[in-house]
Amino acid sequence: MINSLNQEVNFKLEFIRKTLTETGTSALRLRGNDWFSWATAGASNTVLLATETGVAEVLITAENAFILTDEIEAQRLQDEELPANFQMHIYPWADVSQRESFVKEMTAGGKVMSDRPTVQERAIDPSLRSRKQIMMSSELERYREVGRLASEAMTEVLTAAKPTWTEYQLAGAGAEALWARGLHPALTLAAGERRLPLYRHATPTGEQIGKQAMLVFCARGSGLYANLTRFVCFGSLKKQDAELHEKVREIEAAALDLCQPGVSLNAVYYALKIAYEERGYPQAIREHHQGGTTGYLAREIVANPGTSQMLAENTVVAWNPSLSGAKIEDTFAICSNGNLENLTFDRAWPSVEVAGRLRPVPQIV
Questions:
Q1: 316-319 and 322-323 as β-strands: parallel, antiparallel, unpaired?
Q2: Which regions of the chain are under pLDDT 70?
Q3: Which residues sit opposite 291 in a β-bridge?
Q4: Whether the Cβ atoms of residue 231 and residue 217 lie closer than 8 Å to each other
Q5: Most buried pick, 34, 205, 283, 341, via CB within 10 A?
């Protein structure tokens, strides 16, 4: 496993240095949580979950690859997070100027490219953004594990849920189940019976969930996001609700059928738009974003009418079409044979076949 991580990092360093040469840039500086995990083969610079940047940065030049961090974090990162491909530059936590002086020294006043550029830096090259979204085999191995753990956590929580639980309790149980498996609960949305039809992004409240509930995860592990949505119903599912879920599964199938290398994201968006219209919901496409590519961000690119970027082999997608009171979502890898691999599938969760794929249905308890 260690050799695999080192090989992955070496491949990425080679690609980065090729890009530096082609763009006439002296160094690449990566500050974001997503880019840090990508460059380090799944290491984390996250301490505070609510921030987009962490407690360490990556600095890559033609000759060297550094982790820039302070004295508080350095030993833990070396012991528990980082592969062996990087040198450490450690500075006093109270004197960040030493970090900046080191960057200037290593880049000799040349141009610096960054994922979060300052006034003196340039934006990251599009070739690197594209490379980040195409998973290597070692990344897909980690992704499968993250997806498996996230889906098992979801099943565990909704199997144990009670109608007397509040939305806070449901979301909290979800977060606990993710943490217990070593995953960051980057997003846990929960909505009960009354609020389900009202809000697409139902952040949890102290209200009891009642006869049915939705739970949504964006679970992060090794820097990778597993995104999934499930429903639980206490007692029988009303006919109109069952029909809504069936329509959402059909709408999702229109998107999944198009997820092939060489298909643009906006083509998938328009397929969803047509699928809504054909089922009598012409405004639904405007009521919530439909998802897009995922990976080191919960959504790398959200599909819309202007997203002409092409899907590629080993890209990962997560679509989440919805109607009032029904939604569906899983995380899929686009395989070399053109098939889709559901990274968040759990055989213990009830499902039906739709367009040749097993898709989740509300669990009746």
A1: unpaired
A2: 1-2
A3: 319
A4: no
A5: 34
